[in-house]
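User: I'm preparing a small set of examples for a lab meeting where we compare how different chains pack in three dimensions. I only have the primary sequence for this one, and I'd like the structure in token form so I can line it up with the others. Please keep the answer compact; I'll paste it straight into my notes.
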Amino acid sequence: MSSDSKSSDSKSPQRQFRPETRLVHHGILRSQFAETSEALFLTQGYVYENAAQAEARFKGESPGFQYSRFANPTVRMFETRMADFEGAEDGRATATGMAAVTLALMGQVKAGDHIVSSRALFGSCLYVVEELLPRFGVTSTLVDGTDLSQWKNAVRPNTKTFFMETPANPTLEVVDIAAVAKIAHDAGATLTVDNVFSTPLWQSPLTLGADCVVYSTTKHIDGQGRCLGGIVLGSAKFIQDNIHNLHRQTGPSMSPFNAWVMLKGLETLPLRVRQQTDSAGKVADALAAHPKISRLIYPGRADHPQADVIKRQMKGGSNLVAFEVKGGKTAAFAVQDALQVVRISNNLGDAKSLITHPATTTHQRITAQARADLGITDGFLRLSVGLEHADDIIEDLSIALEKA
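Assistant: Understood. Below is the structure token output for the 404-residue chain.
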């Protein structure tokens, strides 16, 4: 169906309900069978009543679906519900989170353009900014995201967009979105924000001035380690001008099955993320004074380096906790190996608590100096707090730390 299609649910809520209610009901496209749960439309193509209708649909003169690389009813329900949750006007779902990041950035630039990005990024995001885009003539400047003067000084006449993760992976560095958005807009550029670590529940980049928000829906939105996915969100004009045609022609489309799983995940996201955030705060407080931990970072604590920014722009912390174990890589590995509840995995946002050693996993491809500049030491660990009882997680970590 055309990207501006509306829900066919005749009893779709008309009032502006709260997020928890909208995450259960918004955007449903019901079939003739009036199903309660969202339908899973596993189809590649769609048939037309006649040749004239096919022509009109491809011209955009008649609403309806054409091909599932372009749009699919189940995927469209997910896009509509996510846009509503984020406070966006439109969105395009993708096969993975990195597909969303790549689509969002490449859709805004061409050869000869320039990007300014915070240097605290997921390893694959750094690859896109530093290695992939330059192949197509797009240059970039990496800055300390917390230093507003660096954003301003990095602007060039050909700067098209700013890019950031906040909180950042894996250091949980937080950037002042509103302040950076103003610098970008004053320079005639846009701001693209990866909002994965906070989720739309705790942070709303669009209301703070961002033009585009991206997610790896693989993380909290699925929330149970099942499917890959991503999404790009923004105004209807931003999506139409920058994202729609590139998405349509290059095909990084989300599968209908994955979209259906994501829809089910959205129904429980507030319950899961609230509990995970609450537990993460307890874990952070319990570990903060541990004698074998030299540094602990959590966005919900007053000792976070950007606590004042967090207080202004976030409604809650995160389910991510980062800490540095004394003794470097040997001690960090020993802690991971001694855990019984928390599992070793480079994923996050899962119902299960997961821990990873970024220096040898997610950020092992960047140089040792770059890791040092980011604060990713050999003893640094990233913990994604799950839905287990907080006391069990704390006890598991405490026992592992003693063994290390």
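A couple of notes for your slides: The domain at 19-265 is CATH 3.40.640.10 (Aspartate Aminotransferase; domain 2). The chain has 14 helices and twelve strands.

User: Perfect, thanks.
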